[in-house]
């Protein structure tokens, strides 16, 4: 819970309660003083002027007080909305970072491979006697465009990255907002819904 918002909320409630009590006390005291002035000096006009002046001063103070209370209320609403949005943003980021599967799709949108996430590193490339990869693409169309060790999907400190391993043709990452990033011996943060393309025939969907 936001301590600043909680404190302001409690403060505003206390001010409202005290304000009512002070209003009543001030009005009674003002009337008594005006009556005492009238009794002492027997001048009704000045007693009424004193009464009006004191009530006007207190009314001005009350206007300022209510304005302050309104400002506190607006600040509380604003801070609560910011807090709510921040929580929603963090939850959305956490959801998108929770990658469970890597899906391999051909140029006809058919699923030709599926990898369940069980470790922190998945190397993409073409497997042979000297090269071991987790996602083997040696038998796909246009495999000649894919390097033996093309890229790696790696989890670093709870965040998933796509890292190009200095591949010959680079690695293309298409984000969920359709932003295209071409990686060449670089890394980029990946989330659920991102698509990796190594050639024109194969797509790797992060899910």
| Strands side by side in the biggest sheet | 2-1-11-10-7-8
Question: What structural class is derived from the secondary structure elements?
Answer: alpha+beta
- Name the CATH class of the largest domain: Mainly Beta
How many structural domains does the protein architecture include?
2
Q: Bin the strand percentage.
A: 15-25%
> Quaternary status of these chains?
single chain
CATH architecture of the largest domain: Sandwich
Q: Determine the N-to-C terminus distance.
A: 33 Å
Largest sheet: 6 strands, antiparallel
In sequence order, what are the helices and strands, one letter per element? HHEEEEEEEEEEE
Label the overall shape: rod-shaped
Query: Rg from C-alpha positions?
Result: 36 Å
Low-confidence stretches: 1-5
Tally of helical runs: 2
CATH topology of the largest domain: Tumour Suppressor Smad4
Helix content: 40-55%
Number of strands: 11
Average pLDDT confidence is 83
List keywords for this structure.
single chain; 207 residues; alpha+beta; Tumour Suppressor Smad4; 2 domains; 5-stranded mixed beta sheet; 2 helices; rod-shaped; disordered N terminus
């Amino acid at each position: 819970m936001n301590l600043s918002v909680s404190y302001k909320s409690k403060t505003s409630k206390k001010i409202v309660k005290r304000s009512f009590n002070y209003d009543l006390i001030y009005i009674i005291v003002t009337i008594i003083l005006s009556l005492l002035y009238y009794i002492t000096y027997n001048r009704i006009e000045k007693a009424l002027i004193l009464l009006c002046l004191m009530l006007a001063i207190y009314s001005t103070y009350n206007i300022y007080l209510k304005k302050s209370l309104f400002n506190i209320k607006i600040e509380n609403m604003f801070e609560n909305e910011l807090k709510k949005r921040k929580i929603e943003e963090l939850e959305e980021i956490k959801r998108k970072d929770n990658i469970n599967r890597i899906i391999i799709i051909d140029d006809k949108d058919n699923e030709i491979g599926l990898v369940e996430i069980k470790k922190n590193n998945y190397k993409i490339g073409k497997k042979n006697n000297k090269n071991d990869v987790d996602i083997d693409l040696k038998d796909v169309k246009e495999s000649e465009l894919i390097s033996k060790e093309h890229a790696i999907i790696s989890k670093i400190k709870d965040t998933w990255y796509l890292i190009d391993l200095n591949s010959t043709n680079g690695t293309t990452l298409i984000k969920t907002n359709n932003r295209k990033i071409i990686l060449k011996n670089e890394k980029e943060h990946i989330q659920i819904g991102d698509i990796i393309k190594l050639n024109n025939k194969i797509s790797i969907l992060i899910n």
